[in-house]
Known about the structure:
Layout: H1 8-16, H2 22-40, E1 43-46, E2 64-68, H3 95-103, E3 106-111, E4 131-132, E5 135-139, H4 145-152, E6 158-163, H5 169-175, E7 178-181, E8 201-206, H6 209-219, H7 237-240, E9 249-253, H8 254-257, H9 267-285, E10 289-293, H10 297-318, H11 336-347, H12 350-363, H13 369-392, E11 395-399, H14 420-424, H15 427-431, E12 436-444, E13 447-455, H16 460-474
Parallel strand pairs: 2-3, 9-10, 9-11
Antiparallel strand pairs: 1-3, 4-5, 6-8, 7-8, 7-12, 11-13, 12-13
Helix pairs in contact: 4-5, 10-12, 10-13
Amino acid sequence: MKYMNKSIEELHEMLINGEVTSDELVKESLELSHEVQDKCNAFVTILDDAKGGEVTDNLLSGIPYGVKDNYSTKDILSTGSSNTLKDYVPFFNATAVEHLNKAGAIKVNKTAMDEFGMGGTGTTGHTGIQKNPWDTSRLCAGSSSGSAAAVASGVYPYALGSDTGDSIRKPAAYCGIVGYKPTYGMISRYGLFAFSSSLDHCGVLTRSVKDAAIVVDTMKGIDINDMTSWDSSNINLKDACSGEVKGKKLCYIKEIVDKDRYKNASKELIDHLDNFYKTVEKCKELGMIVEEVSVDEALLRAQPSVYVVISCAEATSNMSNLTGISFGPRGDGDNYIDMMKDHRTKGFSPLIKRRFVIGSYVLQKENQERYFKNAQRVRRLLVDRWKEIFADYDAVILPVGSGPAKHIDGSKDILDENTAFLEEHLQIGNFGGFPSITIPNGFVSGLPVGVNITGNCYDDENVLNIAYALESSLGFKGQIAKEVK
């Protein structure tokens, strides 16, 4: 009997009743890890010596899970999927991992990712490309690509992710699972390798909304090591999942989902938008009010560039410590400057180098006003507009991406020039620190697609309850990837 395709509550009940042991769950999860590694290249490290643990009243006790490789794990290789840290073994755990350890959860692998989270494809990590378990010729998206592939394949019920632009939520959509990033600071970022500190969020990928709630209930909490964390002890996400949503008000952004604006749209894009409008009707059937709102198109067009400028600037600063001197493989050279140059030149992928060049350029004194400070101003305009929307609506509902997972080689993907609206809008959730969750809402070309629900800061209970009710109506909860090729 297979166990890892079950939910957290189902596994906990089986453990409590003696129908299965924690050791048996870990053994199955490790076996599946190797199968998925062969198929999808989802992991940097598989912890073959992992053992089961004590089963307590905590729902996560004794149950295996995966950790994205940019979370610090004590005495376990933590590379951020980069050659600059290919041999790095930390001496401490990230706070979120420590909370899960105390709950009795069992980590069984470190999942592969885009290098340091910088990328949305799952192709830039030092261990190679992560392939989509539904169709291995397609991407998982990134950067939480390995976590998404593993959860979708049934290796365990949940894995940790991080989200700086859409790095939990888009891989979840492409792999047919749930991806949730809570309000900024609900989960401490201490021990998460910093990419863009004002945008980075810790979160989780699961196969159901309630499982996401259970995991984040355990991970969250104020932390003296992270001054941006806050006290969320009065928030109980699992208990908030009642399914009572009658009278809730949702909206979608006309400029993002208007089919007429995509003149060269592929059939997949059109089918994806049609599927979104069917999901809107489901919301109405549940008693929710769904209305169309408009946002200044110039503001939307600026949004992807704002993300690039701010994220690259912060990354350049955050990763200046990756010199090969304090840690990481030592570079060659006659002096420390040459050694650092050699380390960074050999260690980083071309994508990372380009982002560092952009970040350094926009931070130069003569360029700051034109690029970095202007990007910050537009970020504020976008956040203020979404805050205005949240004054009238409980959440914004929008499709994720412009269709199902893109092909790894890109040869069959047809993107309209305006699809940046569809592809990048999730970044606004990071600009404002808003709670945001993606759930599967159907299939296009036999592959899963997702819908996203984003609400106002600190309103996580409301956002998750809306997602929970919609998930129950749509019928894609708990699905395991079945390769369509």
